[in-house]
């Protein structure tokens, strides 16, 4: 029943947007091809026809694209006979893909999740393997990929408490969907428990860690610190406070933290990297209202830095900026956004400070806290107090930094294990079909 309703609402939505899409296509210019791909026209996506394995990897946005980069590197090592394509859900993901992915791995916009459109894309790409990252589950493409003979894998799987509560309301539908996957690789034990709670076959679940943490060490290029010092126009010993992936409300709270630190460290530079670039004007207004002058990073590169506060207005720079950070605060944690990847900074030997809302990365914070390399603060006042404490104890702070680096270094290998999971199953017997009748689906929902 739920699947039928999903189909119905999908087509109703399509009928509504189709006339507007036609108008857009007429005037879209350089964006026309992206919309054509949304409608399943992916003829321009070229794969090496000589390679017997064809992998379609779906990376919804920027974070997943970073995971995709690490996995693709492993695919090339373990499955050199595979041709790989990547789909994404938005233009930011596509922009990052163009920066991160190898030239022989094309990236395109994922098709709208309607059977006819999905089938058009599948008939063109003809995947041997379809890979979902994290919990990006689109019912039609999952079902139709299996109909077309692809083997399905869910990698780097994770389920927050909030998502689990929502999916639990449609457990029968989710159980049917999850049964399509040959293997489900999850990050930690809590994720495995939640997937089982949605009806996933326990035998299909593996706990293999977070491939995103592999990326943290891979990004730690020794040449980065000098490049980013030049970019920010700072000298070797100049202190830098990087607040990464901040969300609405956090910048206003962090202003007083910066001012407290600046009293102790007069030449401190504050680098703010909002999670979403569309918020740049909003952040500038918040800073202006509090009497804080700022420049955007592109301005700094063009004109030189004339303020103590720099706003990052380009994609994909945060990992590099961490390389010059003296102090790091992880955004999305003073407000309820689940936090972000703390090991990106730890990979540079920098301890990480964060608020109480780190639920999406509780595994990583637990690892850091166990080694006294990650510090949870309740509020901005406590953050300022802790940072000031360490400004007076540089030797103690250096020890925490070395611990952070060790923690990050120990988290390597997840991507290799997850790709090995696919390699092992590629030549196994065909997975049984996940297709059920409407009656069976309804029975599952009402259990």
From TrEMBL:
Compartments (UniProt record): Cell membrane
This protein's UniProt keywords: Cell membrane, Lipopolysaccharide biosynthesis, Membrane, Transferase, Transmembrane, Transmembrane helix
Catalytic activity: lipid IVA (E. coli) + CMP-3-deoxy-beta-D-manno-octulosonate = alpha-Kdo-(2->6)-lipid IVA (E. coli) + CMP + H(+)
InterPro entries found in the cross-reference section: Glycos_transf_N, Glycos_transf_N_sf, Kdotransferase
UniProt-annotated catalytic positions: 64
Site positions (Transition state stabilizer): 134, 212
EC number(s) stated in the UniProt entry for this protein: 2.4.99.12
GO biological process: lipid A biosynthetic process; lipopolysaccharide core region biosynthetic process
Protein family according to the UniProt entry: Belongs to the glycosyltransferase group 1 family.
Entry protein name: 3-deoxy-D-manno-octulosonic acid transferase
Organism field: Thiovibrio frasassiensis
């Amino acid at each position: 029943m739920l699947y039928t309703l999903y189909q119905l609402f999908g087509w109703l939505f399509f009928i509504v947007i189709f006339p507007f899409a036609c108008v857009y296509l007429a005037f879209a210019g350089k964006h026309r091809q992206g919309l054509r791909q949304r409608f399943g026209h992916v003829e321009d996506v070229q794969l090496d026809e000589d390679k017997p394995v064809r992998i379609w990897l779906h990376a919804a946005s920027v974070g997943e694209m970073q995971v995709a980069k690490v996995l693709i590197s492993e695919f090339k090592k373990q499955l050199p006979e595979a041709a790989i394509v990547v789909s994404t859900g938005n233009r930011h993901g596509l922009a990052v893909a163009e920066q991160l992915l190898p030239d022989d791995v094309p990236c395109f916009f994922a098709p709208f999740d309607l059977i006819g459109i999905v089938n058009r894309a599948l008939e063109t790409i003809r995947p041997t393997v379809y890979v979902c990252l994290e919990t990006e589950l689109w019912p039609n493409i999952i079902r139709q990929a299996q109909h077309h003979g692809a083997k399905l894998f869910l990698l780097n799987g994770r389920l927050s408490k909030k998502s689990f509560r929502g999916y639990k309301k449609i457990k029968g539908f989710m159980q049917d969907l999850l049964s399509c996957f040959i293997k489900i690789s999850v990050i930690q034990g809590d994720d495995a428990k939640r997937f089982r709670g949605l009806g996933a076959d326990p035998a299909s679940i593996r706990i293999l860690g977070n491939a995103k943490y592999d990326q943290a060490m891979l990004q730690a290029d020794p040449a980065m610190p000098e490049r980013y010092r030049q970019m920010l126009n700072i000298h070797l010993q100049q202190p830098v406070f990087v607040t990464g992936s901040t969300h609405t409300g956090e910048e206003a709270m962090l202003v007083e933290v910066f001012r407290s630190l600046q009293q102790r460290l007069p030449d401190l530079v504050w680098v703010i990297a909002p999670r979403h670039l569309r918020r740049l004007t909003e952040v500038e207004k918040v800073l202006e209202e509090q009497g804080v002058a700022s420049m955007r990073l592109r301005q700094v590169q063009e004109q030189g830095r004339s303020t103590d506060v720099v706003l990052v207005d380009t994609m994909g720079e945060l990992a590099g900026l961490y390389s010059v950070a003296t102090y790091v605060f992880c955004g999305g944690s003073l407000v309820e956004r689940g936090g972000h990847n703390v090991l990106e900074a730890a990979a540079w030997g920098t301890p990480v400070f964060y608020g109480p809302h780190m639920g999406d990365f509780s595994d990583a914070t637990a690892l850091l806290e166990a080694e006294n390399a990650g510090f949870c603060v309740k509020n901005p006042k406590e953050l300022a107090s802790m940072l000031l404490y360490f400004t007076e104890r540089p030797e103690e702070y250096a020890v925490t930094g070395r611990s952070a680096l060790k923690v990050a270094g120990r988290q390597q290998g997840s991507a290799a294990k997850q790709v090995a999971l696919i390699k092992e199953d590629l030549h196994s017997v065909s997975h049984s079909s996940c297709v059920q009748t409407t009656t069976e689906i309804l029975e599952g929902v009402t259990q």
